[in-house]
Amino acid sequence: MDKNLKRMATMQRMQVTGLNLFYKNGYYNTSVDDILKELSLSKGAFYYHFDSKEDFFIQIAENLLVRKIYSMLIEPIEGHDNPLKLIVNCFEDVLETAVHNEMDYGFVLGNFINEFNARNPKIMRHLNDILKIWEVNLVSAIQKGKFDGHIDRHVDAEGVALYLISSYIGIRTLMVETAPSAQKYKFMAQLRYFLKSIESKPQTA
Amino acid sequence: MDKNLKRMATMQRMQVTGLNLFYKNGYYNTSVDDILKELSLSKGAFYYHFDSKEDFFIQIAENLLVRKIYSMLIEPIEGHDNPLKLIVNCFEDVLETAVHNEMDYGFVLGNFINEFNARNPKIMRHLNDILKIWEVNLVSAIQKGKFDGHIDRHVDAEGVALYLISSYIGIRTLMVETAPSAQKYKFMAQLRYFLKSIESKPQTA
DNA sequence: CGACAAACCGACCCGTTGGTCGGTAGGAGG
DNA sequence: CCTCCTACCGACCAACGGGTCGGTTTGTCG
User: Fold this and answer.
1) Which of A2, A190, A196, B155 has its CA at 20 to 30 Å from residue A55's CA atom?
2) Tell me: the pLDDT tens digits for A121-161?
3) How does residue A1 score in pLDDT terms, banded at 50, 70 and 90?
4) Between A83 and A7, where is the model more confident?
5) Inter-chain contact A114–B106, Cβ cutoff 8 Å?
6) Does pLDDT of A91 surpass 70?
7) How confident is the model at residue B66 (pLDDT cuts 50, 70, 90)?
8) Residues 29-58 of chain A: which lie with beta carbon within 7 Å of strand D?
9) A102 vs B: CB within 8 A
10) Is the pLDDT of residue B175 over 90?
């Protein structure tokens, strides 16, 4: 039990700094040695715990990455309020965090998808799974909104979810380099317009 | 003169296959040797024409990439029609091309921006320049639309442009792996809604 | 204290990387 | 026919990549 704890602790440390470096420099641009150097660990330790660099990344994706997406993008939109409000607040928060993050390199999941797209099918399956989780949660939030009368009944929930995800991936990419605060502001304004346009119209009988 | 022609021809060949491979595998995942192998040329030829791999990429960006953006995303929205229509048609065309492209790896410029974001400032300056060109052209198209009465006068042209670019970067990323045709369809529907919401309302006196 | 396994070390392997450099083919000009 | 320069060749280099492996530390249990 105690042993298992120590094992877990080391693996956790490796995964955390691994994710940080992969996020910062990209997967292919981060060597196993880079990670080990930061941890003052050796090759032996790494390959004792993980089969390969690829396996290592997949573990990170399934542990840390999923959780990150949940806490950042899914849990905030779970609730019984107007989903449009929840979504706006969620996007606002997450973009605000990015603005104030000195070391922001974009949308973690988005960056990896971009890097592995059509190049590493094995890893892509995992990333797509995570993305899908976000998507279905968005869709069901929107559908609940339709049911509860917050959102117009004619709205295509899947379409809206896809559009939201697309725009989020894009804005996070753009915010990395230029004037994140201003970009966020302009983006959020348009997002609000868009969401307003799908809210259920008061039946002006 | 004749010599200059030959020089240009070789450099052009290198850049074209260089761009293809960079687009396909990413910059860091494509070695100079990979490019040379495809061309049956030698290291000597490469470093005779270009200072470094980085310099090579910058040349590609300034030549081929700019042109690509112009012909795909800028020229189609230049014209005296309703800019909203032009934009919709432009997006429709470019997404349709992606759908039918067996070897689609996403939005060229977007991929590179993602790869170099916050990692290679020198290259990023060039990529941001190209992006800016697209942006200002979008903005001015929208402003012209406002002036000509196609677009509501209260619309923030820069915000709309940013939102369009964001969503485009995102959807192109998403279309690489899963059901591009269906994604395109859903995306375009939402895009139309969004653009409809900023068109100038008929003055229902 | 001794035994034994889990956790970790680091030298080593070998293919690949961006880049260099001395050389050469071949066409233009004299 | 000789010269000269552009365009290209390809062997070579040092650094680095992921991954292996025989060995040592460390903690636990008897």
Assistant:
1) A2
2) 999 999 999 999 999 999 999 999 999 999 999 999 999 99
3) very low
4) A83
5) yes
6) yes
7) very high
8) 30-34, 43-44, 47, 52-54
9) no
10) yes
Looking at residue B7, its pLDDT comes to 81
Given a cut of 60, is residue A204 above it in pLDDT? Answer: no
Residue A54 at interface with chain B, using a CB cutoff of 8 Å: no
**Interfacial A residues in 138-157 facing B (CB < 8 Å):** 156
What does the pLDDT read at residue B204?
Answer: 54
Contact (CB<8Å) A187/B28: no
Nearest nucleotide to B6 (CA to C1') is D7
C1' of nucleotide C17: residue with nearest CA: B31
CA-based nearest residue to B25, from A25, A120, A43: A120
Q: Provide, rounded to the nearest whole percent, the portion of chain B with pLDDT above 90.
A: 92
| Angle, CA of A107, A112 and A113, to the nearest 5° | 100
B166 in reach of chain A (CB within 8 A): yes
> Closest residue by Cα to the C1' atom of nucleotide D21?
A44
* Distance of alpha carbon A166 from alpha carbon A169, whole angstroms: 5
Contact status of A183 with chain B (Cβ, < 8 Å): yes
- pLDDT at A205 exceeding the cut of 50: no
Pairs of CB atoms within 8 A across A/B:
149
Concatenating the DSSP letter of every residue in chain A gives -HHHHHHHHHHHHHHHHHHHHHHHH-STTS-HHHHHHHHT--HHHHHHH-S-HHHHHHHHIIIIIHHHHIIIIIGGG-SSS-HHHHHHHHHHHHHHHHHH-TT--S-HHHHHHHHHTTT-HHHHHHHHHHHHHHHHHHHHHHHHHHHTTSB-TT--HHHHHHHHHHHHHHHHHHHTTS-HHHHHHHHHHHHHHHHHTTBPPP---
Which bases of strand C have any atom within 7 Å of the beta carbon of a protein residue?
6-12, 16-23, 28
Residue B163, class by beta-carbon neighbours within 10 Å (0-12 exposed, 13-18 middle, 19+ buried)?
Answer: buried
